[in-house]
Structure of Type 4 pilus biogenesis operon protein:
Amino acid sequence: MRHTRGITLLEMMVTVAIASILLAAALMGIQTPVNRQRENEATRELWASTLRARQRAISTNQPVRIVVEENVPRGDGTSRTVARWEQLRCDNEWDNAGCPANGCENTTCRTNPACCSEVGQDIVIPVSMNAFAIHGLCYMPGSGRPVRPGDLTCMRDFLDDLPALDAAAPGNLRFDFTSGRPRSLIQVEPRTGLANVMDCNPHASTQNQAIECVN
């Protein structure tokens, strides 16, 4: 009489392991395009936010800055990194020299809502994206001139100091991704504040573009 051979425990473990690897590969294949789509959307939203911030700084005669904050609670119970523009209050209403108001130079309006007259919508930054290059970008009141002084002061008391404003020009703001997506740049014109977004091509067609993407 012939006996039927069953599956050994080792064979079952190997089968489960192979199935798990195939499932993980399939999920990664699905997730990668989703992640890159989120990165693309966040990059474009940040670019649009810079244009909106510039327009508001000119029209309201108040400084408008971009802030990036970590661990911000969301409505779904999670905490995420988010960015938004903040229109800052000034110490007086007859000129824009005292902007932002005292006590609002190095705090965000999420921490101190009284520092802002208006804020933009939150832009959720994907976990695979580093957007802190744009943190502190500020458009000066009235002129819309862009500065990034390395903090959140918006160059208070330096409104007419052209050399200081030149030194704080933001240049190219670089976003990096851990997903393997090429770096993106938001290129901010140092005098007008007009911005363009560029996705870096690893086979850049010009030497200048290649340098901007690598450095």
User: Anything to note?
Assistant: The chain has a mean pLDDT of 84. The helical segments are 9-60, 162-167, 207-214.
